[in-house]
Structure formats: C-alpha cells, structure tokens
C-alpha cells in the first residue's frame, strides 16, 4: 500500500531499439526519465555512447548487461545519470555495484568521462558522486530473501524489481506475482525494505494496469512505455483504422 511518506511517483520510458534516434524520441514523450536497455535491448557500447547524449530531454539511466564495474563505468562515462544493475543477489553485490558508480573515497570508479571528447565540460568527481543514481535489480528468491541488506547497501539509491525473471524464479506468473497480497509476499517485501532503508522502490510495469497496481503497493518508480511496444501498438491500431477506409469506386466500361 502506498504511504504518505513515499516520494512522488516517477514514470520511466524504456528504449530497446538501440539507436540514438529512438532514444531521443523516447526522451521527449513526457516521462521523468529514460532507461536505455543494454541488457536485453539492442544497445551495444557504441550505441549507448551515441544515445545517451542524444536523449538529452530527460535523465538517462542505462541498464547494463551485468554487475560489472567496467560496464557500469562505461555507461556513466557516456554521460548517463545512473545505471540499473541486473541480477543482484545480496548486499555485497549491491555494495559492489554502488561502488562502481562513485569515485574515491566513496567508491572505485575510474575517471574518464567522454564529455571531454565532445568538447563539453566534465562534472567534478564530488559533484558526480552526489548526482549519480545506482539502482540494483532483485529478480530471484535469493535476492528477495536478502532485500533488506540490498536496500541498505551503501550507495544504493533504488531497488528495482524485474517481474519477469522474478516470476520465473519463483515458479509463478507476473499476473500472480502482482496479485499476491499474502503476508510477506515478494513485492511488499521490496517496498517495506526500501522504506526502512530510505531508498526508492522501482519496477518494470510495461503497461498502465501493472503500473497502477505497483504504484498502489508503494513502488515509486514504474516503467510503462517501451519503444518496441509503442510502435507495435500504435502501428497496429492505425492500420486497423485505415482498413475501414472504403475503397475508391471503380468505373467500369
């Protein structure tokens, strides 16, 4: 259940297509932030580097392919406002992800922002440390069991639920996961751990119904608009409408 002390709801857009043009368009649809998906999307290193500055209308967060300090640093060097780190299993893995997002003495990030190669000013290390966001994903039964340790790991700003992997790991469906209100259920466990730790609880929703359900449970960041889904849904709807246009009358000799 949502709480009066929760931060305002953030709506995230999500880009899978792997091009600067798609990311730029998605950054301009009115969301609060954009996630560039380099784990399951088509983004590689080069397209992340090109897409982050192109999607300048909102803060860009990169979902990296794994909990790797080099991948995390590379995304941040490209100018990302933050990272989303998948498959984090416990507090130590969460702390390692967070350390990779921050320069010493708070972390272990190496200096090398790519803004310098674009002739743009760079952000001082202390300012970068204060501004960066580190989200870690909980997607397994082991992670749910350790969610309190994950949420309070130093430098973690958000715990983000990957509902598809979590449902698979728990032997259930996403619909059943969202409908589970039993005591100690996984989604409530994440929200409650985040409230205790003072971090955001986020989740991939993919659509309005799931987003409403997640927000009602206390998730304060939900991803609802995915570029591949938007193109498919809008294109299908438009073509269906176009099919209702009568054919021109043909004159017969």
TrEMBL record:
Record bears the keyword Metal-binding: yes
Database matches in InterPro entries: Aldolase/citrate-lyase_domain, HpcH-HpaI_aldolase, Pyrv/PenolPyrv_kinase-like_dom, Pyrv_kinase-like_dom_sf
Domain HpcH/HpaI aldolase/citrate lyase: 11-232
GO-annotated cellular components: cytoplasm
Cytoplasm keyword on record: no
UniProt keyword list: Lyase, Metal-binding
Molecular functions (GO terms): aldehyde-lyase activity; metal ion binding
Family: Belongs to the HpcH/HpaI aldolase family.
Name this protein carries in UniProt: HpcH/HpaI aldolase/citrate lyase domain-containing protein
Annotated organism of origin: Microbacterium rhizomatis
């Amino acid at each position: 259940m949502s709480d009066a002390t929760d931060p305002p709801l953030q709506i995230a857009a999500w880009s899978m297509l792997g091009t600067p043009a798609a990311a730029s368009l998605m950054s301009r649809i009115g969301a609060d932030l954009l996630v560039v998906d380099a784990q399951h999307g088509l983004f590689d290193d080069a397209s992340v580097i090109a897409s982050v500055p192109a999607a300048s209308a909102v803060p860009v967060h990169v979902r990296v392919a794994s909990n790797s300090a080099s991948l995390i640093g590379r995304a941040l060097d490209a100018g990302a406002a933050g990272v989303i780190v998948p498959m984090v299993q416990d507090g130590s893995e969460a702390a390692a992800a967070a350390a990779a997002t921050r320069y010493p003495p708070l972390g272990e990030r190496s200096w090398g922002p790519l803004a310098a190669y674009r002739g743009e000013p760079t952000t001082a290390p202390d300012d970068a440390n204060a501004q960066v966001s580190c989200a870690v994903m909980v997607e397994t039964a082991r992670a749910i069991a350790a969610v309190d340790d994950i949420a309070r790991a130093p430098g973690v700003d958000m715990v983000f639920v990957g509902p598809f992997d979590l449902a698979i790991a728990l032997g259930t469906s996403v619909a059943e996961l969202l409908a589970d209100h039993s005591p100690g259920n996984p989604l409530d466990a994440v929200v409650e751990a985040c409230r205790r730790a003072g971090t955001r609880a986020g989740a991939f929703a993919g659509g309005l119904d799931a987003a409403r359900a997640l927000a009602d449970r206390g998730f304060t960041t939900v991803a609802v608009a995915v570029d591949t889904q938007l193109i498919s849904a809008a294109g299908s709807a438009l073509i269906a409408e176009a099919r209702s246009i009568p054919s021109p009358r043909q004159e017969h000799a």
